[in-house]
Amino acid sequence: MAAVISFSQVSKRYPGGGEALCGIDFSIEAGELVFITGHSGAGKSTLLKLIAAIERASSGTVLVGGQNVGALGSRGIPFLRRKLGLVFQDQKLLYDRSVFENVMLPLRIAGQATRDAARRARAALDKVGLLERERARPMALSGGEQQRLCIARAVVNRPAILIADEPTSNLDGDSARRVLDLFRSFHQVGVTVLIATHDPAAAADMAPRLLSLARGRLT
Amino acid sequence: MSAWLRHHGHSAVQSLRRLASAPLASLLSVLVIGVTLALPLGGYTVFSNLQGLLPVWAYRADISVFLATGTERAKAEQVARGLRAQEGVKEVHFVPRESALAGLKKSSGLADVIAALPENPLPDAFVVVLQRNDGALAERVALHARSLQYVSYAQVDSAWIHRLNALLGVGRTAVYLLSLVLGLALVAVTFNTIRLQVLTQRDEIEVSRLVGATDAYIRRPFLYFGGVQGALGGLAALGIVAGGLAALNRDVSTLAALYGVVFRLELPDWPYCAVPVLAAAALGWLGAAASVSKHLQDMTLR
Asked: Which ipTM did the prediction report?
């Protein structure tokens, strides 16, 4: 199977800071479920940011879907991100918009016709169990619901790769399990899922491939 | 193509929503732009109207030729022949001293004073109309008229119009310079408005970028906002100028009637009225483009 994500001798050094990643080599094939584990500061978030072109590698090559992310210009990056579903630790929701509007955002950006977009947004909300809350503001949702809203927004464009940074870190046990079940369900339909977490136990019953990071190196 | 059109439609709607979401602030911004643009637009309108009036005056009574007091009418006819013989003279009208006095009584408001005069102090005169509005020709004909026997004085009536024309030229240039300066002010006002909007919508911009928005997509609603705000400011300027003209017109008409002219200050025809609105929209768009481009450049994803 072809690698959908590939890191080759990738290092990342922040200006004025230490080396966040050092000589990282790995590849992920289509349809894999991968957990990146490691303590806080191990470089998990940096690694995910390199995939989404939020950060640029200091050296080495990052390939996503066969595209060299480092070589992408500012015009190419948005189109790379549209192929990815991103779930952030701090969710990055628009709190002055409704749940429905938050999920509509990527569809509007992709230029979907309003009727189709609305249908897909509602399908995504239904999938994460938030259809009945579509008119609510994110602030009115619980932490788990906000994270599920973030997942709905990430998957609404039907991305081939779903990337999540600490998606369960602020959730209680039940909410975390529900969120992880969602990721499992997307993996089961063929989506490549890459999750960064500091808690490998969370993934125990999902039998994923584990990539362990410590001080910027794969162990 | 349809996605591109949808983006534009969405951006236009979004910009209108932003305007409507803060009606008072939007109204004040539009008024600031309107007042700023009303100044050069009003100046241009007044100068254009006066410019339009010049040909009317310029072709009426190009030269007044006054005969010496007591000149007999037969001699006056001799002067008329001498004037008509000049090249460039279109018409020569005789103005008898009696009708000149009657006209003065009627138009000056000094009827009682004039009635008290022991005799008519005005001389017979000719009004010489030239074939074309040419200052040099007028001077030449006036010089010739002064050389004729029985002529006391010849005056080029249109000389003041040429001076006024030159003054209007200076005024027009001043209006163009003012337009340039105030156009820059409009760009600056829009730049600042958009800067504040970008800052207040920083989170939305960041999230949009993270889910695949291009900078063009992010810029578009701000550009529409700048353009729409500018266009509304242009319309406000037209409204302010139209209101000002309506307020002035009563007095202006009265003044014009004293010169025997029917005159009202009017806005230019609608295609010309569209120019300030479109120019304001373009300047607003430009200010927004400069602002949003600069601030997007400064904004990095976290």
From this structure: 0.90
